[in-house]
Amino acid sequence: MFTGLSAFPLTPLNDDRFDEQAYTGLVTRLVEAGVDSVGALGSTGSYAYLDREERGRVARAAVRSAGEVPVIVGIGALRTSLVRALAEDAQEAGAAAVMLAPVSYQQLTDEEVFGLYEEVTADLSVPLVVYDNPGTTHFTFSNGLYARIAELPNVAAIKIPPVPLDPSAARERVGAIREAVPDHVSIGISGDSAAATGLNSGCQAWYSVVGGTVPDTVLPLARAALNGDSAAAVAESERLKPLWEMFAAHGSLRVTAAIAEHLGLVAPHCLPRPVLGLSNADRERVARLAEELHLA
Amino acid sequence: MFTGLSAFPLTPLNDDRFDEQAYTGLVTRLVEAGVDSVGALGSTGSYAYLDREERGRVARAAVRSAGEVPVIVGIGALRTSLVRALAEDAQEAGAAAVMLAPVSYQQLTDEEVFGLYEEVTADLSVPLVVYDNPGTTHFTFSNGLYARIAELPNVAAIKIPPVPLDPSAARERVGAIREAVPDHVSIGISGDSAAATGLNSGCQAWYSVVGGTVPDTVLPLARAALNGDSAAAVAESERLKPLWEMFAAHGSLRVTAAIAEHLGLVAPHCLPRPVLGLSNADRERVARLAEELHLA
């Protein structure tokens, strides 16, 4: 389950309520495109903004729409007891795996983050993905902490932040993590602009933001890299560079939401306020890119 | 209401549940000590870790215990609609004011933060404190954004992060904010180690972490500074330096919780996991400091 393209759909809102119909449409597109797994309630799925009841509805809708495709459900929250409750809800909904980021308000210590994973994994019946996203959690994992957490029961994968774009630095980075954690723990890349480099450097999975909305656009990159054609993967990533530049300027969530809104897959203003999405000028740029890059 | 010592009590948990009895005791101590206001559900009150129902209970308990002392209630949350609901709850509970930090998961833009305050202040019947805490929100206000938000209805105060410890740099910093916002908007200092410098530089209030647990310890500093005896305020702050050093090393929340636990004001392990509190060695240091510095 922790190889290939894991596609992370938005959780679209409509007038501040979960838009289940649009969400079902997004997940169905992913299944039809042939993604390897669906990542429900990732950062792209706005998990941190939704309450427990909403998150239960999203998880159930994802599993129902994904059919045979495994669904990984995000269970991150600030408080350990809520994380444990969300883990139960996700498993009851039929999640094939759960994914946990050390969300913080007070800056967390290594011991606190280890304790969080220790408590949560002790109760699990499904595998867990360690979700390392320093840009949103403001916590930085060391390789030593990866190693300690990877020894816990049910830890099956690590979703790492973008690797350096220099290929040898990327290989060194992925190689060091590979040495630190047991072989049964998959290493996957996130940060779409670093996907080709990450996959070419030994990452086994790509946890993709834009792939959750336009899977046909990113599958050639994923397939090329995983089939060993690193040059083709890099070429595909180069082709999508204007998109990566917009991601860097505005955040991948806002740009991906604008793509989904432009393509009519979700209602306008689908993000949870206070997040506003793009300006009108940037939305026009997204519309042009959607055509030029054949986003689908 | 936005002058003098605003004391921020912990929201103690006992076995992961709100310990209302201990909380009532903490607030009662503040009233008896003569603080100028009580800051319920600040960062020190773990607001970000509590759900809406818990936060309603805390707000009601604070107002009930505070008697004539005004209670400022924190309403921060990631999603605007939840912030608005929390603002309603706080007002129904009898809050004299509310306090709002731009909590983030996705990094917020200036426009998004302005929009948050615009939406929330439009509905309010009580004054609002703009809560600027970049260490936890990971958002940095410019003076220009302070100025725009200060023009919104009901904005009555700004709680600023620590000023530089150099007195002239601190005066420059507070003076620049003072010039940016209307006179009716109070400027208050947070970061206990910067309180003397902040008050001596023109801040009108001190939003205090440790003052919410040991008010008698910090009132002399606040009174000296607000009476114009800046040297006495600095001397008091110097006296408490070993405490500020522990705050810098471990975070003021963990140290203050250890003080409250040591003094028997709350049950052991009163913080929301995954936050663990101090190690045993550091708790022994806290116990020694409590005696040496006469924390009370």
Number of helices, where a helix is a run of at least 4 consecutive DSSP H or I residues of chain A: 13
Shape of chain A: globular
Order of helices and strands of chain A: EEEHEHEHEHEHHEHEHEHHHHH
Oligomerization status of the protein chains? homodimer
- CATH class designation of chain A: Alpha Beta
Strand fraction of chain A: 5-15%
Rounded mean pLDDT of chain A is 98
Specify the CATH architecture of chain A.
Alpha-Beta Barrel
CATH superfamily of chain A: Aldolase class I
Low-confidence stretches of chain A: none
Main sheet: strand order of chain A: 1-4-5-6-7-8-9-10
Distance between the termini of chain A: 24 Å
Binding site for pyruvate (chains A, B): 44
Active site (chains A, B): 131, 159
GO molecular function (chains A, B): 4-hydroxy-tetrahydrodipicolinate synthase activity
Family (chains A, B): Belongs to the DapA family.
